Amino acid sequence: MDYKADTTLNEKDSLQDMLNLEKNLVKVYSTAMTEGASQGFRTLIKEHWNDTVEDQAKVFFMMTDHGYAEVTSAPQTTLSEEKNKFLKIKSQLS
């Protein structure tokens, strides 16, 4: 079977793909930091993690600038409720 798919990504799809890649890299580097035993290795991975976090933010903000992602503010009551949940959990762990 001779099958060839002509697939092209538009700008939005390309940026979404890049965003997903950066988010996955953040997860991989996070795992590597917690699994690494050598301080040199952990330092190197942390530098890569920081760079990747910055790249992820750049792609996300590019998407918002082009109208491909929408950011809405949560109501203050929701923010307060979530903050209280985390403070409760934090106090239980102490």
Arithmetic mean pLDDT: 91
Structural class from helices and strands? mainly alpha
Question: Major sheet, described briefly?
Answer: none
Find the count of extended strands (DSSP E, 2+ residues): 0
Poorly predicted regions: none
What characteristic shape results from the CA principal axes? flat
- Strand residue percentage: under 5%
End-to-end CA span: 63 Å
Number of helices: 3
Tell me the radius of gyration: 19 Å
Helix fraction, binned, reads over 70%
The helix-strand sequence is HHH
Give the domain tally: 1
Structural summary, described in words:
With 94 residues, this protein is mainly alpha-helical. It has one domain. 74% of the residues lie in helices and 0% in strands.
List the helices and strands and how they pair.
Elements: H1 11-35, H2 39-65, H3 76-93
Provide tags for this entry.
single chain; 94 residues; mainly alpha; 3 helices
Structure in a nutshell:
The protein is mostly helical and 94 residues long. The protein is built from three helices and no strands. It has helices at 11-35, 39-65, 76-93.
